[in-house]
Amino acid sequence: xxxxxPSPTSISNLSLLAPxxxxxxxxxxxxxSISWLLHLQTPLEILSLxxxxxxxxxxxxxxxxxxxxxxxxxxxxxxxxxxxxxxxxQPHQPSPFLLKNPSLFCFPVDVTLDPTTAGxxxxxxxxxxxxxxxxxxxxxxxxxxQFDTDPCMLGSEGFTSGRHYWEVKANGRFWAxxxxxxxxxxxxxxxxxxxAELWGLQKYDELCVALTAPSNTSVPLLNGEIGVYLDYExxxxxxxxxxxxxxxxxxxxxxxxxEKVFPYFCVLLSTIKLSPKG
Length: 278
Hints:
Radius of gyration: 19 Å
Largest sheet: 8 strands, mixed
Shape: globular
Helix content: 10-25%
Protein name: B30.2/SPRY domain-containing protein
Domain B30.2/SPRY: 91-278
CATH topology of the largest domain: Jelly Rolls
Order of helices and strands: HHHHEHHEEEEEEEEEEEEE
Number of strands: 14
Number of helices: 6
Strand content: 25-35%
Strand order of the largest sheet: 2-3-14-1-5-10-11-12
CATH architecture of the largest domain: Sandwich
């Protein structure tokens, strides 16, 4: 595990942000509001982390990660669930959830990662079944489709029709999963903000949101396997909590306009592992 010195100035400086709650529901000085405000200490501490495997590369986590976090402070955080660290894609295994929902099981897809889209600080395995946040030992050829700022990537196969379902076992502090247009912005920051070209869920410590526009929508904190369902013709993107067999969120009907869409992933302080095809 990583260790870092306490940051006494972080909490004192965060007290200056209390006026941001002036336009939020409830009392800005209430204990719950102040407690939620103090969660901002976490991204500040990240900037001082020095993981042995990364060394000076932590400097690449610029302060631009903080501003969009302030923008979602108006959301009421869901109850705390212990943080998780890995993402396991299991599109082909008949989980108990799929056995209860056979219509979804009819459309499983096997997902691999596209190295030509992987952003910086993403380590990819040789078989393209695993991605880890960190300094890569080898560099894949750069291309125009690469995310140049955030540790994001697309799946290798895109879709222009049909129904498709895959599962992601989420286990980390910062991650995002979903579906993205082929034309998604790949230059500059993508994390922590709504995006009209992306239909996804994103977790930041104890907060989980759907990336809706013009502002994010708070959803229950997810722990464990997440099912992602895409119906291209209908324009439906839905997310399911596999463990509880509950639908978590369905985006408003999307118009893909004939454009190819891809599985989308983003890893920060986390790993994704894709199961081999059975």
